[in-house]
Automatic annotation (TrEMBL), chains A, B:
Name of one Pfam family that matches: H_PPase
Organism: Hallella colorans
InterPro entries with a match to the protein in the record: PPase-energised_H-pump (IPR004131)
GO cellular component terms listed in the entry, alphabetical order: endomembrane system; plasma membrane
Protein's UniProt name: Putative K(+)-stimulated pyrophosphate-energized sodium pump
Stated role: Sodium pump that utilizes the energy of pyrophosphate hydrolysis as the driving force for Na(+) movement across the membrane.
EC number: 7.2.3.1
Transmembrane segment boundaries: 6-26, 60-79, 85-108, 129-155, 167-187, 272-294, 306-331, 337-361, 382-407, 427-447, 491-509, 554-581, 621-639, 645-665, 712-731
The protein's assembly and partners: Homodimer.
Membrane topology: Multi-pass membrane protein
UniProt similarity note: Belongs to the H(+)-translocating pyrophosphatase (TC 3.A.10) family. K(+)-stimulated subfamily.
UniProtKB keywords: Cell membrane, Ion transport, Magnesium, Membrane, Potassium, Sodium, Sodium transport, Translocase, Transmembrane, Transmembrane helix, Transport
Class of enzymatic activity (EC top level): translocase
Reactions catalysed, as given in the entry: Na(+)(in) + diphosphate + H2O = Na(+)(out) + 2 phosphate + H(+)
């Protein structure tokens, strides 16, 4: 049995710390006063709706998990086409992801009224409650993620012992627990995304546009569903997405490390495997430090608030950068300095993508202002300008990721472009660990993400409970801050998804080799000699499967991959359209049939709207979800390994670009509307305002449904390919 | 000197026939009466504006051509990094493309009033004049294309004689004359696309929306510019685009044939080289036959008109399919039956993509109807639905192209998936010749494309000249038919661009080998032995440059390629937005300052609007154009051959999908508006109508600027890479 170094225990310790602190923040939030009876009532509606949705979703997910687990079990025990641990790993991955979503959302729904109530006292109180409640989500995600990783690593190491190849089997087996996380994330992101935007678009179209009542007005029957949507889409969906990236990046880097250093002397291989886990573990402590640093004082401007959050996240980021050098040096990783710079390049890429997202979506900069200005010639030019700007905004993120890929590859292998077997392996390890670097401080970055919808809901609660002007001003500043952090959070989620997907792509090759080894299929190396697949280097592999750009299978795979991204987006856009139309009908019906709603004397049937969103989301998420799972399987069976790799690269390149485009276009339309509302180009109620509302409504599914769902697609397609590697090998 | 078979002479004969018939159709059109003085006056304005634009554009293009020719000359004579014929070939390619645009547009601008006048007599008269004038464009394009090909082939064969490698040099040198066509097409498509939509959007926004006057109303100052735009964008732009595809597909297939059959016995190599040219030549005669078959009778319904056009194009397509078997059999091409099926798969793919485009964009089918229906909840849902539907519509074209790629590859090499050197080469030849198949009847398919704007202009002329209700009804049916053919024509243009780009991609490899051979750089083969680059097989090449999907250069190239497509689209969308805004200002100014315009007593300053469109288009096309040329050069220098191939594949997969999305979304918004105008959902003037107008306006740059410009981008990036192969080799 390979000796697990003592330092490994830091990982479960970090996990337990994260979970304990999450519990601590949750408890202290719960102790705060929830406010007036009206506030408690409204929060109750939302909590009830959110939990009802989650329950319904978990039912659907449970069915899918049972089916998939049976398939994996049959593959593993019936056909020997999979490792026997896979069904169990798969289930724990999904279970922990679901648990994280449950805790995160529960906290968020308890926190919103308390944030509004705290804002009655001071801005700092409000910020602290909202942000620390967001931190619960962040800490639960990293805590459960690391726990799952640590436990499986200990268990599997116990069973597989012996030579260095056992560690490869352990890490690639663990990788498949990411499939559970992926599946859970798929439903959380797609279902949650459809839910939230069906409610939002429906509420806006009838409420704001037709009935001319403000956002979050309690007279609007869809307003509770809209607030529920913020929780299920932006808290639970985002959490599941990043849980998947977090685990995926750590696990694939571990697997790449096991292969890259399989032939190294001593326990170098083991150290390379636990290095990404350790960076993540140290990141937990630094995230905690950052969370405690976030505070502000009364009368804080938007800039002060941003600085308060920025101080926390940036301190954590700078410290993890420094800590990485120490960790890798102490672990005595070969070329530790270079690998450290790989981590830095991932961290930096995350920051740059976040900055570029802010530039393209914030109304303080030219791009969004010019979209507002386009409203002078109507809604059509707002859309044209927004789409144009969104497309141009893909440039910086793509170049950043490109540079990060090159740098992390080259730093890790000592700037070796020889494409020798070893240089590729260590280079790929560098790309993986760059993704880990980007995600290492997820504890705090996810806190800033989850903070957004809590502040948004607090604002809704304040509006619906008729709290004073001063309170609403405070919740408005908290909310505005949330919009900015949500935009940068989205950029960050996309960037990390791309790097993670790339690391998974590389791991796919390892899975295929292991699958071939398991069934005894031989491979030929570059020289043409028959070899055991598990001994094949990447050049051998590429040559054997002809994974080059003149192979029509690769080309067709790339075409299908690019198309899959568009198709998936189109389906989710269509889903939001249909679900929103149902909501519009329902709201119109209530306005018509329930007397006195608009006068404030009748009570709208909030529950019916919540139900409609829930049902629509559940129905509409099925086709895109099945598609995302089935496309890589079909391509694998029809076009083999070369086709799958083409699919993944085509899907990744097109999907990443499309995701950035959609997120940024959506974000800038949102803020272009806000810019007009701030009094520019005629302000609220003007023709320009109406034109920007059209942009904002179009942007809703862009930025909150289709765009973020692409993150899942690009990771999930790799994950499915990995899990189905056995099938691909058996069929070819 | 390789013996050129007698049958080769069919190619110049076909070319001369096409040009003669074009002249004949032009003459007979010119003999027709142009109508009332008012009609002649209006046609004069448009002709004048169109020619002024073309003159201005050719000035800019001339400068670019001089600069590029000098660069190529320096590369060829100064650094020996290019074949000495390249500068000349480049210039003739551009010159002939420009000439085709000039003739086509001249004809179109003379034909519109005559079509309107003929429609005063009967529908058949109108159709015949419009269609045969469109045929002038089609025939000039294929005639000049084949002429250029035939002359260069004869000239170069005279200078390079001897072994089989000379034919490789001849064909790859000729390929670079496609660079001239590409450059010309870039400016025609991008400049023309910006021009036409700036005028169209500007005219609509102020005319239809603000002043509430109908389309083509002479009181609208931008109406002449709008009509000019149809000519410069849809006639000249489309013509240049397909001229490039036509020449590019024939030339790259010839080059692929020269390589694939270099080692074959007898003159097999020569026969493989002239096979694509012969198929194209026979296609000319069959196109002529089809053109003569297009006629209809008075009282024809839309269905009859569609059938009339369909009869012509389908007859030509079926006959060329049959003829292909005969040609390849008589040429005794190795595996002639299989290669014939490659051609058929290209032809079929063209038909299927056209049908799918019609399904997704015509208001007779569900997708477009449902976009109309979305107008019940406003403009935002029209946009959401249109984008969703457009994205979903990418599925069939991508799968069709994918199947066509696989089939044409496998048919040509006898279903050999061994990826042996020879099987790849013959497979790639199959892909190239599939593109030739798709484009072989371009004479008539382009005629149906160019017919559209002529009919559109005829309608405009009838409206502005106050011709009777009956006449306008006839021109309306002609115009409606034009909209359908334009949509299918766009699908066809995109599909052929994708296959052509793929063939060019394969040719790029040959160019690199020749460039290495020229400067004496050695390569290693798969076994590791040093060999002369010109003897390298594709597996050698792929191995030497590590063009596999685990090379970070390839991955980064693919990312940048996908981003380039989005960036290019974003820039052209932005350009239309800016140019349209200028137009809006000008029209508003004229309404304000020129007394009596809206009452019909004052004359608008049409010329000023034409000028604005011309200037905006010329300014705005510079940045996207330079980008399209420079990106592959930079990638080549920074990332080398592997990066360029990644770039081309990423750009092709994402660009093709994006182009289909944009063209279909735009087309369906256009027809969703028409569906409402036909009296559905409240008809003209209703709130639903206004909502669909927003969709139509957004769709304008989608379908007529950004979407079609992507065709150019994906071909041009390959072409630039080919021409700059010498530079890439010198730098690496």
């Amino acid at each position: 049995m390979e000796q697990i170094p003592m330092v490994f225990w830091l990982i479960p310790i970090a996990s337990v710390c994260a979970l304990f602190m999450a519990w601590f923040f949750f408890r202290s939030m719960m102790k705060a006063d929830e406010g007036t009876p009206r506030m408690i009532e409204i929060a109750g509606y939302i909590r009830h709706g959110a939990m009802a949705y989650l329950k319904q979703q978990y039912k659907v997910v449970l069915i899918v998990f049972v089916i998939l687990a049976i398939i994996f079990a049959i593959m593993a025990y019936g056909f020997n086409a999979q490792n026997p641990w896979v069904p169990f790993a798969f289930l724990t991955g999904g279970f922990f992801s679901g648990l994280a979503g449950f805790f995160g959302m529960k906290t968020a729904t308890y926190a919103s009224a308390r944030t509004a109530n705290a804002a009655r006292h001071s801005l700092d109180h409000g910020l602290k409650i909202a942000f620390r409640s967001g931190a619960v989500m962040g800490l639960v995600v990293v805590g459960l993620g690391l726990l799952d990783i640590a436990v499986w690593f200990l268990v599997l190491n116990h069973f597989y012992n012996g030579d260095s190849s056992s560690l490869i089997i352990v890490t690639t087996t663990m990788l498949t627990f990411g499939m559970g996380a992926s599946t859970q994330a798929l439903f959380a992101r797609v279902g949650g995304g459809i839910y939230t935007k069906a409610a939002d678009v429906g509420a806006d179209l009838v409420g704001k546009v037709e009935a001319d009542i403000p956002e979050d007005d309690p007279r609007n029957p869809a307003t509770i569903a809209d607030n529920v949507g913020d929780n299920v889409g932006d808290v639970a969906g985002m959490g599941a997405d990043l849980y998947e990236s977090y685990c995926g990046s750590i696990l694939s880097t571990a697997a790449l490390g096991a292969t890259a250093f399989a032939a190294s002397a001593g326990d170098m291989q083991m150290r390379a495997v636990i290095a990404p886990m350790l960076i993540a573990a140290v990141g937990v402590f630094l995230s905690l430090l950052g969370i405690f640093m976030v505070r502000t004082k009364e009368g804080a401007t938007m800039k002060d608030l941003l600085r308060a959050l920025g101080l926390g996240t940036n301190t954590a980021a700078v410290l993890i950068a420094l800590a990485t050098f120490a960790i890798l040096y102490l672990l005595q990783i070969e070329n530790w300095l270079g690998v450290s710079f790989s981590v830095i390049s991932g961290l930096l890429a995350g920051v740059i993508i976040g900055q570029s997202t802010e530039y393209y979506t914030s109304q303080t900069y030219k791009p969004t202002k010019s979209i507002s200005e386009a409203s002078k010639t109507g809604a059509a030019t707002v859309i044209i300008k927004g789409i144009g700007t969104g497309m141009i905004s893909t440039c910086i993120p793509v170049l950043t990721i490109s540079v990060a890929i090159m740098l992390s590859y080259l730093c890790a292998n000592g700037f070796d472009m020889s494409m020798s077997a070893q240089s590729i392996q260590t280079g790929l390890y560098g790309i993986g660990i760059a993704a880990v670097g980007m995600l290492s401080t997820l504890g705090i970055t996810l806190a800033t993400d989850a903070y957004g919808p809590i502040a948004d809901n607090a604002g809704g609660n304040a509006e619906m409970s008729n709290l004073g002007e001063e309170v609403r001003e405070r919740t408005d500043s908290l909310d505005a801050l949330g919009n900015t952090t949500a935009a940068t959070g989205k950029g960050f989620a996309i960037g990390s998804a791309a790097l993670t997907a790339l690391a998974l792509l590389a791991s796919y090759i390892e899975e295929i080799k292991i699958a071939m080894h398991r069934v005894g299929t031989m491979m030929t190396n570059v020289a043409g000699d028959a070899i055991d697949a598990s001994n094949a280097t990447i050049p051998d592999f590429m040559n054997y499967f002809q994974v080059n750009l003149m192979n029509p299978k690769v080309l067709v795979g790339a075409f299908v991959g690019a198309m899959a991204a568009f198709l998936f987006c189109g389906l989710t856009m269509g889903a939001v359209g249909r679900a929103a139309a149902k909501m519009v009908e329902e709201v119109r019906r209530q306005f018509r049939e329930i007397k006195g709603i608009l006068e404030g004397t009748g009570t709208p049937d909030y529950g019916r709207c919540v139900e409609i969103s829930t049902l629509s989301a559940q129905q509409e998420m099925i086709i895109p979800s099945i598609l995302a799972i089935i496309i890589p399987i079909i391509v694998g069976v029809v076009l083999g390994v070369a086709g799958v790799l083409g699919l993944l690269v085509g899907g990744l390149a097109a999907g990443f670009t499309l995701a950035v485009f959609m997120a940024n276009a959506g974000g800038s339309w949102d803020n272009a509307k806000k810019y007009v509302e701030e009094g520019n180009f005629g302000g609220k109620g003007s023709a320009c305002h109406k034109a920007t509302i059209v942009g904002d409504t179009v942007g809703d599914p862009f930025k909150d449904t289709s765009g973020p769902s692409l993150n899942i697609l690009i990771k999930l397609m790799s994950m499915v390919s990995i899990v189905m590697a056995g099938l691909t090998v058996a069929m070819s």
